[in-house]
């Protein structure tokens, strides 16, 4: 744990400790007040029998509550909690840059395109009313096809997650069997296996065996080994967690297969499994710390962030945000093609396009040149073509 994280964690722990103490003190005060009121009610009921005046009993209650000072004690405890919370906020502000707008650049947005991305994101997230409202208020064309597709996959996913029902998914597979076969999809077998495993977890040995004979045997040609393991699991009914193949029959398989189904659904439509807005926000969030540091460094050097044409530092993103369908040469700004493929320079492994290699080497195989990124020496024969 680095020093920054340790300081923030200590501040957070102090807030947590104060909050727990405030909660405990509040409960104690409330219990005392309730006990005092309950005792007063008992005295009033008893006083009715012996002729005791209720006014005198209530006066004593007021004196006891004044002595307890419940409101003052609660305010004091709350104030201490608020002070520790304010210190936590200041700690965050001292270590983390609160103004992320400094990492933004003034660029022109294609408003219709942005609206389209927002509308499609709403549909993908199941926010159909919000998407419809945005279409109407922005005056954009209706995304009928996207809405229909999003509604279909939403129903399929909800059936699987909420009711463990694979029938809607199986109907989709049946309607797209040809395309799925071309892509060597195994989704149908996985769905049938989920249903079979549910029967095992419910202890229905006979039903599970009957289901396996009726449905699983159809996939023996390509999944014989998996089917043998699944059938063996019947021996462990009632104690599947101790089964050698416990992972195969785990309830968590439903979430895993559901995610794979969503990916295959959109892959069949030649669309990404995650909405472009989600991907863009994820990439931006991951890049933000580096960009904020870069802004601070540039301010010290009195350089203008807005005037930069390319970033002087690499942005390390996760594997899920690595896309290589198009490569743009950082030197020439040209997209790669069959005639101008991306080339990796050895030994530094930086990548530029073939035409840039030719220009830097002046079309001479024996001529050595410097890498535009790190100034490492290389030559055109030492460059290797990359295939994405």
Automatic annotation (TrEMBL):
Keywords from the UniProt entry: Cytoplasm, Metal-binding, Zinc, Zinc-finger
Name assigned to this protein: Protein RMD5 homolog A-like
Species whose genome carries this gene: Camelina sativa (False flax)
CTLH domain: residues covered: 149-207
Pfam family, one: CTLH
Domain of life: Eukaryota
PANTHER family, A to Z: GH10162P (PTHR12170:SF3), MACROPHAGE ERYTHROBLAST ATTACHER-RELATED (PTHR12170)
Domain annotation RING-Gid-type: ranges: 329-374
Keyword Cell cycle tagged: no
Compartments it resides in: Cytoplasm
InterPro entries with a match to the protein in the record: CRA_dom (IPR013144), CTLH/CRA (IPR024964), CTLH_C (IPR006595), Fyv10_fam (IPR045098), LisH (IPR006594), Rmd5_dRing (IPR037683), ZF_RING_GID (IPR044063), Znf-RING_euk (IPR027370)
PROSITE patterns found in the cross-reference section: CTLH, LISH, ZF_RING_GID
Residue ranges covered by zinc fingers (RING-Gid-type): 329-374
